[in-house]
Write a structure and sequence with these properties.
alpha+beta, 6-stranded antiparallel beta sheet, about 30% strand
């Protein structure tokens, strides 16, 4: 349910263990829901972590579109161009691949950027975050309201929380929401943006926002609101 509301995913691979059974399971799920993926190969500071061997395994067991974004720009462009005919033509004509083309390939799941480092020692983390900020897909959101519910929980005081991703339009406090088929009508009393266990309240949540809503008693995980 959570995978269905992601714009993209960050798949963490152990540099010493490589692709595990659970890695393959996650990869198949991400493929099923069409989620673009960035890969961070962690623990590269440990003995036994072989950069070339891990990259070869990623290409063999996950996708040939796995490209090391820590390599020289010319090499990244050349390998990315091999993932798409139109981009290959651009590369052959200009000798380069622009950022927009790379972003499109990532969004279409033809290209999977790979970054190597050690999270514990903060090695490669800055480069990874810069790559994520630059190339992560930014879907075009419709102006009509829509949202997808992925979880229902309760806070420490017992208040029922409906966790959802706003996929279009804007959700505002006290707005009247209707269940699928008009099964129910309830107001969104409070909009909470969580960071760990803490949260801040907001007056509105634009498209793309992940928010927890209070005041809804009949929502179910997996349900859609609005055009969803």
């Amino acid at each position: 349910r959570t995978l269905r509301v992601l714009d993209c995913a960050v798949l963490v691979i152990s540099g010493t263990d490589g692709v595990q059974a659970h890695t393959r399971t996650l990869w198949r799920l991400l493929e099923r829901y069409g989620v673009p993926v960035f890969l961070f190969v962690n623990k590269m500071d440990l003995a036994g972590a072989d950069h070339s061997a891990v990259l070869a395994e990623l290409r063999q067991r996950l996708s040939s579109g796995c490209v090391d974004f820590g390599a020289p720009a010319e090499q990244v462009a050349e390998e990315a161009a091999m993932c798409d005919e139109a981009v290959l033509e651009q590369f052959l004509e200009t000798g380069a691949v622009d950022g927009d083309a790379l972003g499109r390939l990532i969004g279409e799941r033809k290209l999977f950027p790979c970054f190597f480092g050690s999270a514990l020692k903060l090695e490669g983390v800055r480069e990874f975050l810069e790559g994520l900020a630059r190339y992560a897909p930014s879907p075009v959101r419709p102006v009509e309201f829509g949202a997808r519910i992925y979880k229902v929980s309760r806070d420490a005081q017992g208040a029922r929380l409906t966790h959802l991703k706003v996929t279009g339009g804007t959700l505002r406090v006290k707005e009247l929401l209707r269940g699928p088929g008009g099964a129910w009508e309830e107001k969104a009393d409070q909009l909470r943006i969580y960071s760990g266990a803490k949260f801040k309240t907001v007056e509105e949540a634009p498209a793309g926002t992940v928010v927890a809503v209070t005041g809804l008693s009949r929502t179910l995980p997996g349900e859609g609101l609005g055009f969803e």
